[in-house]
Amino acid sequence: MTNSSDPTTDYANRVVSGEIIAGRFVRASCKRHLKDLKTGHKRGLRFDTEEAARALRFFPAMFTVTAGAKEGQPFHLLDWMTFVVGSLFGWRNADGRRRFRHAWIETGKGQAKSPLMGAIGVYMIGYCGVKRAEAYAIANDRDQAKVLFADAVALCRAPIPERGDDTLESLGKVIIRGVGDNAWKIEHPATGSKFLPIASADSISGPKPIAVFGDEIHEMKTDKAIQLWKAAIDKMSGDPLMILGTNTPAADQAVATDRSEFYQRVAEGVIEDDSAFSYIARVDKNDKPFEDESCWVKALPALGVTYPIENVRTRVKTAKHIASERLATERLYFGIPVGSSGFWLSDESAWRAVQGQIFEEKLKGLPCFLALDLSRKNDLTALSACWRDSFDKLTVRTKYWTTRGGLKRREAEDRIPYEAYAKEGHVTICESETIDYTFVAQEVKTMTVSHRVDSLTVDPAYVSDFIDACGQVGLAVWRYMGPDKSAGSGLKIVTHAQGTKIAFEDRQLCMPHSISRMTDKILNREILIEANKMTDVCASNAVLHTDGMGNSMFDKNRSRGRIDGMVSKAMAVGASKAERKGKRSYMESGVLFS
In sequence order, what DSSP letters do the residues of 339-399 get, joined into one string? Predict the structure, then answer.
């Protein structure tokens, strides 16, 4: 804590100014705090510095640290904890009740989330003026729930600062049911309140929680327990609070991933929910934690204070040489959401390395291959252009369009801040309910005038409708049906299959070959892809499905959101492959003759 009369706001200012190094989502939460100080009164919000200070004073006055480098010292909150506690207990609604009813705390390992939540639990059952308050520590199983609860028990049994050997338990301020590690309930006699651990499978009749604490949410297989306890919180009057704590989840840990993404959107203002608070500590997308230690503190805000930096250095040294250790380290220590359903490319750093600025004027005269991933009228359309130079080096630009109709709903469903991205030039919002194919056809026509367009590649499911649209805008096109068929006049349209099957290669392109070519170009740094936030979203959502023959496709059913830009890029890159002279070899299809 600082000496400021408002250390919560002091922390936010120091983060936003850059004095405290923090990642994207912590910066967003701090900006939200500062913005609401200025404009929150319009929504009936106010920040009560006295209530925040009261909560902040409680921890070092009543608890000593029970483990680690600070063991035996008063429980002075770390800077990041000060922001969390001050925010949760300082912000108020117009009626005086606490603003936040739901909180998400996500950090790397070893940042003392569990002791913090345990201490908050003791504060809420005994020192917030609520009679017969109920607090619960929840988890997948009772043993996991008892980890957080055990921290609360240890704090109650630790000496009170400046009170000799007196503890909350020895003074009778709390009664702990159970001996040693078998403690199962904390009672506060003066208020008739209780705090106990409970497994998600346990049944409990009519809970009336003032506080619910969930730990290790990334380990939860379903959100049934969270939904049950959230419903209990939502129907409580007064100031109930649910706090969920976790390490960054792997991409396939759906329960925590969905929650984390919701709180990310709240922090960044995509979703407005005045009852939700988050502190999400991750390194930023362009950080390189295996090369640069300075970014570690973004995911590990206690680093060098209560968490030794040597612990991380040792871990990183090992992880550099063991792939599985590297993935675990990226996620658990640096907040990178990798996992079995993680980034579609084996080397995400290679993907980042080929993102950059392109200059379209310099590409004029080069062969240009267009590819279109059309929307179903009202979602997202992506048009990719791939230019190929004489050395087979590629440059790719993708344009995105969506519609105004249903935009707010789709922002929530797709987890994309379309409005913000449109202002930054990453996507165009059409002022209509649907994206008319003639609009897209006109964009293609414009490209054929400006560039040396070889062909347009399209999903077979949409080719007939799109050819009709081209006719309506006066764009002459013809559909390529194979080398033995006569060429037409105008723009050549080639269909591109979307699955893993390799078939009819004489008259269509196939996704396995296109993905293979794009992957090779990325890994060999032989491609430049225009940086675009929509492309970032599509790439992070993409999941590859590979069949028994080793053929890959982008799996839209398993992908976690929009991937249209990745599909169109793969098709454009696949189409750009130089034509071979003479008879085509069938080695690519696994046949050993030509």
Answer: STT--SSS-HHHHHHTEE---GGGGTTSEEEEEEE--SSSSEEEEEEEEE-TT--EEEEEE
In the block, which residue shows the tokens 């980890």?
A: 147
Residue 385 lies in a domain: yes
Contact 329, 358 (CB under 8 A): no
Q: Which of 254, 280, 306 is the last residue of a domain?
A: 280
Mean pLDDT, residues 505-509 taken together: 72
- What the block records as the tokens of 142 is 């009772």
CATH of the domain at 462: 3.30.420.240
| pLDDT level of residue 508 (50, 70, 90 thresholds) | confident
What CA dihedral angle connects 324, 325, 331 and 334, to 10 degrees? Answer: -150
Residues 360 and 229 both lie in one domain: no
Phi, psi of 171 (to 5 degrees): -85, -5
Residue 266 shares a structural domain with residue 370? no
Question: The domain containing residue 64 runs over which residues?
Answer: 7-280
Q: Is residue 327 part of a domain?
A: no
Q: Report if residue 338 sits inside a domain.
A: no
pLDDT score of 29: 98
Q: Which residues contact 95 (CB under 8 A, 6 or more apart)?
A: 44
Is the residue at 307 inside a domain?
Answer: no
Whole-angstrom Cα distance, residue 399 to residue 410?
18
Q: Is residue 124 a contact partner of residue 241, using CB atoms and an 8 Å limit?
A: yes
Q: Is a pLDDT exceeding 90 seen at residue 407?
A: no
Check whether residue 463 and residue 544 sit in a common domain.
yes
| Residue 315 CA: distances (Å) to CA of 2, 218, 329 | 32, 21, 7
Q: Does the pLDDT of residue 38 top 90, yes or no?
A: yes
- The one-letter amino acid at 158: A
Look up residue 390 and give its two tokens.
């004489």
Whether this prediction's pTM lies above 0.70 is answered by no
